């Protein structure tokens, strides 16, 4: 990795705002928008990236101590960029999300399973090779320390088969299901938005380019470091994804909840819907807490705050 590859660039605020306005226009005009994300969008959640100044590859390259996640995994929260993507998908302004990240924060933020292709797996997901059942856990599934050993030690509830973590390590084949859906949606895209990836790992790096080469679509890249595809981008932003998303959504006039707000709204709606008394609510909360322990929040978060946001924007 060259010094040039590691360098981060930042544009001034005026330029970032201008490009956010330009992308907002482009999103409104486009029919099929697909977003592609990489490690860069999760660094502000406390997860180190690969090629940033304190990234994994950079540290290995410079013989420095490798970075660690600074919070327990179950306390990591989706960033403003994650919440923005979830909101755009709910609104139908973006049709699909392709991610190289395995941290599970997209599902956590409320992205439905059918709207995401996770190319390199999901640390919260384990699956049965015998009956193909998938299990989402509120903890990291991987237990093995051997690179190519993926057994987690747990068994399938349905057939008793061995469960395997879904993480794809270097040199391993991608999940056919995930790569196929990623290709399918990338081929339909007339606008590809690349957020927080240096586009150096294939096939993830090829997907946003599929339609640009055929001149059927446009590509926008937001990343602090240069990428090999920069010359093909209609809009190229050197900025933080959280910051850029903030100005983008302001241009689109769509409010984005924080992760905590989304959870609170969900809880409030549930109380109203079920018309719970205080005592019942307390009992429910205990049950809900138990449920939380077993299910990632993401999988039932989405529908709760959707209506609330619609109400807010109609005012
Ligand atoms: Zn099974």
TrEMBL record:
<keyword id="KW-0808">Transferase</keyword>
<dbReference type="InterPro" id="IPR026590">
    <property type="entry name" value="Ssirtuin_cat_dom"/>
</dbReference>
<dbReference type="InterPro" id="IPR029035">
    <property type="entry name" value="DHS-like_NAD/FAD-binding_dom"/>
</dbReference>
<dbReference type="GO" id="GO:0070403">
    <property type="term" value="F:NAD+ binding"/>
</dbReference>
<dbReference type="GO" id="GO:0017136">
    <property type="term" value="F:histone deacetylase activity, NAD-dependent"/>
</dbReference>
<keyword id="KW-0520">NAD</keyword>
<feature type="binding site">
    <location>
        <position position="131"/>
    </location>
    <ligand>
        <name>Zn(2+)</name>
    </ligand>
</feature>
<feature type="binding site">
    <location>
        <position position="156"/>
    </location>
    <ligand>
        <name>Zn(2+)</name>
    </ligand>
</feature>
<keyword id="KW-0597">Phosphoprotein</keyword>
<dbReference type="GO" id="GO:0005634">
    <property type="term" value="C:nucleus"/>
</dbReference>
<protein>
    <recommendedName>
        <fullName>protein acetyllysine N-acetyltransferase</fullName>
        <ecNumber>2.3.1.286</ecNumber>
    </recommendedName>
</protein>
<dbReference type="InterPro" id="IPR050134">
    <property type="entry name" value="NAD-dep_sirtuin_deacylases"/>
</dbReference>
<keyword id="KW-0479">Metal-binding</keyword>
<feature type="binding site">
    <location>
        <position position="128"/>
    </location>
    <ligand>
        <name>Zn(2+)</name>
    </ligand>
</feature>
<feature type="binding site">
    <location>
        <position position="159"/>
    </location>
    <ligand>
        <name>Zn(2+)</name>
    </ligand>
</feature>
<feature type="domain" description="Deacetylase sirtuin-type">
    <location>
        <begin position="13"/>
        <end position="262"/>
    </location>
</feature>
<keyword id="KW-0862">Zinc</keyword>
<comment type="similarity">
    <text>Belongs to the sirtuin family. Class IV subfamily.</text>
</comment>
<dbReference type="InterPro" id="IPR003000">
    <property type="entry name" value="Sirtuin"/>
</dbReference>
<dbReference type="GO" id="GO:0046872">
    <property type="term" value="F:metal ion binding"/>
</dbReference>
<feature type="active site" description="Proton acceptor">
    <location>
        <position position="120"/>
    </location>
</feature>
<dbReference type="Pfam" id="PF02146">
    <property type="entry name" value="SIR2"/>
</dbReference>
């Amino acid at each position: 990795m060259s010094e040039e590859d590691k360098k981060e660039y930042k544009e001034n605020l005026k330029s970032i705002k201008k490009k956010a306005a330009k992308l907002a226009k482009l999103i409104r005009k486009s029919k099929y928008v697909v977003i592609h994300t990489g490690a860069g969008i999760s660094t502000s959640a406390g997860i180190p990236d690969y090629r940033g100044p304190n990234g994994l590859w950079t540290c290995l390259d410079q013989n420095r101590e490798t970075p660690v996640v600074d919070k327990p995994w179950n306390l990591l929260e989706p960033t403003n960029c994650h919440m923005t993507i979830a909101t755009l998908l709910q609104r139908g302004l973006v049709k699909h999300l392709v991610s190289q990240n395995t941290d599970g924060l997209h599902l956590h933020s409320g992205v439905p399973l059918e709207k995401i292709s996770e190319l390199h797996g999901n640390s919260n997901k384990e699956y049965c090779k015998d009956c193909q059942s998938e299990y989402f856990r509120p903890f990291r599934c991987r237990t093995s320390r051997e690179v190519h050993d993926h057994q987690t030690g747990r068994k399938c509830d349905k057939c008793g088969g061995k469960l395997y973590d879904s993480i794809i390590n270097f040199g391993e084949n991608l999940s056919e299901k995930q790569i196929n859906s990623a290709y399918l949606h990338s081929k339909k895209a007339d606008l590809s938005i690349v957020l927080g990836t240096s586009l150096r790992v294939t096939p993830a790096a090829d997907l946003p380019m599929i339609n640009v080469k055929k001149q059927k679509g446009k590509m926008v890249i937001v990343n602090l470091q240069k990428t090999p595809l920069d010359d093909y981008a209609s809009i190229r932003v050197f900025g933080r994804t959280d910051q850029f998303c903030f100005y983008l959504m302001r241009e689109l006039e769509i409010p984005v909840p924080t992760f905590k707000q989304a959870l609170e709204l969900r809880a409030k709606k549930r109380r109203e819907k079920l018309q719970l008394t205080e005592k019942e609510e307390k009992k429910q909360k205990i049950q809900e807490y138990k449920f939380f322990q077993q299910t990632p929040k993401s999988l039932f978060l989405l529908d709760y705050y959707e209506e609330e946001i619609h109400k807010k924007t109609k005012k």
